[in-house]
Design a protein that fits this description.
It is found in: Endoplasmic reticulum membrane; Microsome membrane. The chain is of the alpha+beta class. The protein has 18 helices and 15 strands. It has a domain of 291 residues: Cytochrome p450, CATH 1.10.630.10. Helix 10 crosses helix 12, helix 13 packs antiparallel against helix 15 and helix 13 packs across helix 18. The relative contact order is 0.14. The protein binds protoporphyrin IX containing FE (HEM).
């Protein structure tokens, strides 16, 4: 008996010793890890390094970031200030918030900083993507892409965009169950990118298969770059290879069968524009450009569309005011969307609609920021940013902390009205599409898509939240509601539309 208890005590003592050793080892390795990064400071510069923690060896603070979401940046910003250091996705990183700091980073492209996405993003998007190109090559590629988003091009995409949105809303309304708006908005933006933008004639089955593969790709674009079986990175690479094969097939089929098309899609324009600019795109370039365009449009537009639906649900007075504006412009009549009324110019004339979309993108910014690398050591907010370190300029945190926005957490579209113009108080307080030479190329297309969706929602749909409360918002990898936003859509006959028009007038009178 005595022998047994002795055994137990010694086993416990051994276990305790092991735990203490592991804890000590972890603490020492963590200290060495912090020192390793402190040693990379530029000794010729007298300024201190930004404050912050580099987390644990190799993984850094990646796990904290994934679990805490937007709380991660907010908590560190409060603790260390607008410029702080951390270690994410296998890289040391300096996170930058605030209009003045962001201005310096964005305007310093090609001199102070250069684009550099995390290794996973960079590998998955490929060397020919815009995101990975710099300097003169970047400038030339943007020029080739610019035509895809010109006024004429947008005008020609608009009827197709409207058609895809109308079909989608009909499907949502005919579903007897509530739908997950985020999931369906992802499908909608994928559909828009593949069929409207790229003009691929893929069957519904192929589209579904491409969509699932694309989701695997997007889910792993921001992953630790560890190429081993079962890692997210390996899954992303496999998804990219499958997508490239499918896209090559679709491009070849498209080139052989160009009859019966009533508009030039983005891929047609891209191929033409490449020829005009003396740099015909190879098949590999076309595949990478195609995946990049779908990627850039997919998650961002789906996130913004979901936020738009959520805000219209939360603020019926805003929806009523939107309807009022559509009526005043002859777009909505007797509760029906007038045939052919939606043209690019008429959409651009809708000032309140513009304010609503801008406010959605301010308060629910889909992209949290952009990645750069310091090309030389430079000063930011009194700290040194050492050459070679990654810099992430922050969009969401800059919006959240901008003093120019009164009552910053409130959804208030009127802040963008001509009378208040809060965004005009400084260029870099409001930047949902980034800024400088890498400003979002698709921003006018994205805005057009969101406006068309808002017009269709306001004129042809009735929708109700299917849960008791609004869901929590998650910000990683892009901003979205935790449960996807469960909403019941109802089809409207013209009688219901007229009733809705009347009730809006009453509501409008009380706004
Ligand atoms: C609401 C929707 C969207 C948002 C919020 C958004 C946001 C952004 C942001 C912030 C950047 C700059 C990233 C950086 O500074 O590194 C960017 C770049 C880019 N976006 Fe968008 N985007 C949206 C939709 C689209 C769409 C629909 C397309 C095209 C179909 C597109 C194409 C691009 C491209 C090609 C770039 C890279 C530009 C370059 O590196 O020169 N985006 N976007």
């Amino acid at each position: 008996m005595l022998f047994d208890s002795f055994d137990l005590v010694s086993a416990l003592a051994t276990l305790a010793a092991c735990l203490v050793s592991v804890a000590l080892l972890l603490a020492v390795s963590q200290q060495l890890w912090q020192l390793r990064w402190t040693a990379t400071r530029d000794k010729s510069c007298k300024l201190p390094m930004p404050k912050g923690s580099m987390g644990f060896p190799i993984v850094g603070e990646t796990c904290h970031w994934l679990f805490q979401g937007s709380g991660f940046h907010a908590s560190r910003r409060q603790k260390y200030g607008n410029v702080f250091k951390t270690h994410l996705l296998g890289r040391p990183l300096i996170r930058v918030t605030g209009a003045e700091n962001v201005r310096k980073v964005l305007m310093g492209e090609h001199s102070l900083v250069s684009v550099e996405w995390p290794q996973s993003t960079s590998t998955l998007l490929g060397p020919n993507s815009l995101a990975n190109s710099i300097g003169e090559i970047h400038r030339k590629r943007r020029k080739v892409f610019a035509k895809v988003f010109s006024h004429e091009a947008l005008e020609s995409y608009l009827p197709k965009i409207q058609q895809v949105i109308q079909e989608t809303l009909r499907v949502w309304s005919s579903n007897p169950e509530p739908i997950s708006v985020y999931r369906e908005a992802q499908r909608l933006s994928f559909h828009m990118a593949v069929r409207v933008l790229l003009g691929f004639r893929v069957s519904d089955d192929e589209l579904r298969h491409l969509f699932h593969t694309f989701q695997d790709f997007v889910d792993n674009v921001f992953s630790l770059p560890i190429d081993l079986p079962f890692t997210g990175y390996r899954k992303g690479i496999r998804a990219r290879d499958t997508l490239q094969k499918g896209i090559e097939k679709a491009i070849l089929e498209k080139q052989h069968c160009s009859q019966g098309k009533d508009y030039a899609d983005a891929l047609d324009i891209l191929i033409e524009s490449g020829k005009e600019n003396g740099s015909e795109l190879s098949m590999q370039e076309l595949k990478e450009s195609t995946i990049e365009l779908i990627f850039a449009a997919f998650a961002t537009t789906a996130s913004a569309s979901t936020s738009l639906v959520m805000q219209l649900l939360k603020h019926p007075a805003v929806l009523a005011k939107l309807r009022e504006e559509l009526r005043a412009h002859g777009i909505l009549h007797n509760g029906c969307l007038c045939e052919g009324a939606l043209r690019l110019d008429s959409i651009c004339g809708l000032k309140y609609l513009d304010c609503v979309v801008k406010e959605v993108l301010r308060l629910y910014t889909p992209v949290s920021g952009g990645y750069r690398t310091a090309m030389q050591t430079f000063e930011l907010d009194g700290f040194q940013i050492p050459k070679g370190w990654s810099v992430m300029y922050s969009i969401r945190d800059t919006h959240d902390t901008a003093a120019v926005f009164k009552d910053v957490d409130a959804f208030d579209p009127e802040r963008f009205s001509q009378e208040r113009s809060e965004d005009k108080e400084g260029r870099f307080h409001y930047l949902p599409f980034g800024g400088g030479v890498r400003t979002c190329l698709g921003k006018r297309l994205a805005t057009l898509f969101l406006k068309t969706l808002a017009v269709e929602l306001a004129s042809t749909s009735r929708f109700e939240l299917a849960t008791r409360t609004f869901p929590r918002i998650i910000t990683v990898p892009v901003l979205h509601p935790s449960d996807g936003l469960k909403v019941k859509f109802f089809g409207l006959d013209s009688n219901q539309n007229e009733i809705m028009a009347e009730s809006d007038e009453i509501l409008g009178a009380t706004v």
